[in-house]
Write a structure and sequence with these properties.
Helix content: 25-40%
Radius of gyration: 25 Å
Shape: globular
């Protein structure tokens, strides 16, 4: 019997076992895997739950002085924050023909025979479709989410795009901006020159990214296990090793033709984000106050962050996340498919003392 797309969706929508399995797959894929391999997922967060980081103490030892020895009562500097998660609603709506077309393209891209489709194949696609959409949203919001995003005219279409970014109080880059404005942490954030070079934001000379990496890491008084940046910065750094004028070696020729494996700096692994570049170019415009042209420039197209992966925390309520996952097809005049669910989300840098960045 020929595969019926509409019947398959209706069956999935009422199959409790499929819904439970889909919930588990989505939780595992979206909420357990580390975003960009650069963030740490913290499950089961609750509002007002404290995050306290105590800094290391030292100078507590003294020369033995017999009965006259004096005890030391050192101050233990600590920084306290609170999780403040926002309920995020997922509500995907696709008309019948678009949804069916997306399924057909997925089959072709993954080597399936479009004339011999089983419901199990459809179920696999349905979950992957949901996971892909949620993962992109989660990446975008964790990197650039900001409840104050409307304060400055940085969005190309504020009426449309504001709702795509104002989920959480501050994502990674808005948090870096907040730290830059705080006298206690301002020295930890250096200027990324290209961000403010109108008409030349994507122009890199050999050594630009390498020198910035050196500036950020050399001034740190801690060791961290990663460097995290936007994709265009990573590509500019990679090109330095593919320049025969700088490195006239056979290995350079091989690097040009075969590409380079994942790069590091001084032994520190580098992670990067494609989502950051795509969202910045599509949704953001340059800020006049930064000396940029809104028509041709982009708001903060680059960032660089040096800190432990464990210090970039994405909080989710993974136990209850998507407990109300629903698939709906109303029919009649409304020939659209709906995929609904919700979860709680927040982002924190628990220890901003152990962070250096460039924006």
């Amino acid at each position: 019997m020929a595969f019926n797309f509409l019947d398959a969706f209706k069956d999935a929508a009422t199959d409790e076992r499929f819904i439970r399995e889909a919930q588990e797959i989505i939780r595992s894929s979206v909420f357990t895997d580390n975003i960009n391999n650069a963030f740490t997922i913290v499950p089961n967060i609750k509002g007002r739950q404290q995050i306290v980081v105590a800094r290391d103490i030292e100078k507590v030892s003294r020369k033995e002085d017999g009965c006259n020895s004096v005890s030391i009562n050192p101050d233990i500097p600590a920084l306290s924050q609170e999780w403040d998660p926002t309920r995020v609603k997922v509500n995907i709506k696709k008309c019948y023909t678009e949804f069916e077309g997306a399924f057909t393209q997925w089959q072709l891209a993954n080597g399936y025979d479009v004339h011999n489709i089983e419901e199990a194949t459809f179920a696999t696609w349905l979950v992957s479709f949901y996971v892909d959409a949620m993962t992109k949203d989660l990446n975008r919001v964790v990197l650039m989410g900001d409840t104050d995003i409307a304060v400055d005219p940085i969005l190309k279409d504020a009426a449309t795009d504001e709702q795509n970014y104002d989920f959480i109080k501050k994502g990674l880059v808005p948090t870096l901006q907040q730290l830059q404005a705080d006298p206690a942490f301002a020295a930890n954030i250096v200027t990324y020159t290209q961000n403010y070079a109108t008409g030349a934001q994507y122009v890199f000379a050999d050594g630009d990214v390498r020198n910035l990496l050196r500036e950020v890491t050399d001034t740190a008084d801690y060791d961290a296990n990663q460097l995290f940046m936007d994709r265009s910065s990573y590509r500019a750094y990679r090109k330095e090793f593919q320049n025969p004028a700088v490195y006239p070696l056979d290995s350079t020729a091989r690097a040009i033709t075969n590409g380079l494996a994942d790069l590091s700096f001084d032994g520190i692994p580098i992670r990067w984000s494609n989502q950051y570049d795509r969202s910045r170019k599509n949704d953001f415009q340059g800020l006049v106050a930064d000396g940029l042209d809104p028509l041709t420039d982009t708001h903060l197209p680059h960032f660089l962050c040096y800190t432990d992966k464990s210090n970039l925390q994405v909080g989710v309520d993974s136990l209850s996340a998507l407990s109300d996952l629903k698939l709906e097809y109303i029919g009649g005049d409304d020939e659209s498919f709906y995929m609904k669910g919700n979860y709680m989300l927040d982002f924190k840098i628990p220890n901003p003392y152990n962070l250096k960045a460039a924006i």
